[in-house]
Amino acid sequence: MESLTKNILDKFCGLLFFLKKSKKEFELVADEISESSLRTALNGLSEESNFYAGEIKQQLKSLGIHAEVPENYPESGGEILPEHYELAEGPGRELFNICSFNEFSLKKAYNELITESIPYQSLKEIMIYQLNALTYTFMKVKTLNTARFVSYPQYT
Fold this sequence. Notes:
The protein is mainly α. It has one domain: Ferritin, core subunit, four-helix bundle (Ferritin). Helices cover 66% and strands 0% of the residues. It contains four helices and no strands. It is elongated and about 55 Å long.
């Protein structure tokens, strides 16, 4: 059985850290949202993050690899957005910015692993599926958040 390098294992631990972190953040945010469809989407995002972390840990465990979720991730600077990124302004900006920070961190963590030469193709395929699903869910949450503040003209 092939094994993972320490560098790759550290990246898995970082991914698990960001998945668990986003789970907690979106649970807290969902509790503050009164709009039911957005609250449901946020709770779904929280559950997805938790499920995906468990799925990755289980896959690693089945391969004989033990990955611990760190309390603090040394590269929490991974949450720093790229220079060209501007924080949203206006109604709903807090949730939009929280989503953007988490989405950026998770995409970065997933992409760093997906581009690695991981000897387990099935694990890589699971991560690609998870990344695509999370991207879709973030898009849905951002859309629902924006829709809260859009007024539709009344047709008479």
